[in-house]
Design goal:
This protein has 396 residues and is of the alpha+beta class. The protein has helices at 10-22, 33-42, 59-67, 86-94, 107-154, 204-217, 243-253, 347-357, 363-377; strands at residues 2-6, 26-30, 47-51, 76-81, 99-102, 166-173, 181-187, 192-200, 229-231, 238-240, 264-272, 277-283, 288-291, 298-300, 318-321, 327-331, 387-394. 35% of the residues lie in helices and 24% in strands. The protein has a 5-stranded parallel beta sheet with strand order 2-1-3-4-5, sandwiched between helices. A 5-stranded antiparallel beta sheet has the order 6-17-16-13-14, with helices on one face. A 5-stranded antiparallel beta sheet has the order 7-8-11-12-15.
């Protein structure tokens, strides 16, 4: 190990250097703090042993300067001093000194202090290696999460189905890299489209994994995994599962595991393109906000349990007739449960008010406006839950 000595008294400096070299240290010596600082900037030293009182730059300032330099390796600093006042020792420690040895130094005492310093340096080196390993692991995990987030994002609809007389828009803002919310909208056949918003309990990887699994199951592709369409011997050659049937089957498949208690809420609907009639089921999900062209806004409440709470639940199905000028908003609870600095919820009433105010804006802009209103109300803080919006508009 290399040791840097800062000592203005020539005899003491020579004795100290000779003693340290005899103990196997590689030693560099300087006659004051300024010269020692120059040497320290040019080379790496494990130890610095400095006198307190020196011309040009004293030991206390040398310690301050060394501690102020950027360095990845720790330097153990011992101050040689005749000072014994508690205030002096505190000042030295406050400025970065690790230990003190009284002048004139005792060889045995100095050797004990150096051994203690070596233990500290070994621990610091071990900690530094561990930190580097953790940084590599964290970088790899971050890359994995970013990749997983891209994959999850690819499951969202890239563009809405082209529908005559119907506008559709959505927004999804995860609170973490991965979201427990997911949504989709797709053609079931020439007459009907399917749409859903679901919210898995919890956050991070476990919630995202279940969300991705559910997005695969809630796919209109006819295979054994999909619940939405199945082969039949009808003229069409397939059967579209009614919304209530989808929720009931999901509840049988995904009962909450007692170990993790994971469950999810779902709002799934089938909209007829021609009649504008929506059949839907809600499984513990927040009620849709309905902005009718000819009446007041309303929350369409459908009280029910989330999927996975109870095995023998039968979910009812509802219908809603949409007319020109109507708007319908599906959302996850991350929006009404956004909190301000006092811990108050944003709530559905504020949602309705915000959506009513931007009634004349295009559908997509109304979603952005709502999210901006939530963010302003919460003081610009990051939302504690995923925020998902799906808007449907029947063109006037």
């Amino acid at each position: 190990m290399k040791v840097l000595i800062a000592e203005d008294e020539p005899v003491s400096r020579a004795v100290l250097q000779k003693t340290l070299e005899k103990w196997g240290y590689e030693v560099a010596a300087a006659e004051n703090g300024a010269r020692a600082l120059e040497a320290f900037r040019k080379d790496h030293f494990s130890f610095v042993i400095t006198d307190w009182m020196m011309p040009e730059m004293d030991g206390l300032e040398l310690v301050r300067q060394i501690r102020g330099l950027p360095s990845s390796d720790y330097v153990y600093i011992i101050m040689l001093t005749a000072r014994s006042e508690k205030s002096d020792l505190i000042a030295g420690m406050d400025n970065g000194a690790d230990d003190f040895v009284a002048k004139p130094f005792d060889g045995d005492e100095l050797r004990v202090r150096l051994r203690a310093g070596e233990r500290v340096l070994r621990l610091e080196e071990k900690l530094s290696r561990r930190n580097q390993e953790l940084q590599k692991i964290n970088a790899r995990l971050k890359l994995d999460l970013e990749t997983a987030a891209e994959i999850q994002h690819s499951l969202l609809p890239r563009r809405p189905p082209v529908l005559e007389g119907i506008n559709i828009a959505w927004r999804l803002r995860p609170c973490d890299e991965l979201a427990g919310d997911i949504l989709n909208i797709f053609n079931l056949d020439e007459e009907e489209i399917g749409l859903y918003v679901l919210d898995v309990s919890g956050h991070g990887v476990p919630a995202a994994l279940l969300a991705v699994t559910l997005s695969r199951i809630l796919s209109p592709v006819m295979d054994q995994a999909s619940l939405l369409k199945s082969h039949s011997y009808s003229l069409k050659g397939y059967r579209i599962t009614p919304p209530a049937g989808v929720a009931n089957q999901l509840n049988k498949r995904f009962q909450a595991d007692p170990a993790n208690g994971q469950f999810f809420t779902l709002l799934y609907g089938i909209l007829n393109k021609k009649t504008r009639r929506l059949r839907y089921v809600s499984s513990g999900h927040p009620g849709m906000i309905y902005l009718s062209h000819g009446s007041e806004a309303a929350v369409l409440q459908s009280p029910s349990l989330p999927i996975g709470f109870k095995e023998d639940v039968e979910y009812p199905e509802y219908t809603l007739q949409l007319y020109p000028g109507d708007r319908l908003y599906l959302y996850s609870d991350g929006i009404p449960e956004a909190e301000d600095s006092r811990g108050d919820f944003f709530g559905t009433e504020r949602m309705i008010s915000a959506l009513r105010e931007c009634r004349q804006l295009p559908l997509e802009e109304s979603l952005d406006k709502l999210l901006q209103t939530v963010e302003r109300w919460s003081g610009g803080a990051i939302l504690k839950d995923d925020a998902t919006l799906l808007g449907i508009e029947i063109k006037p």
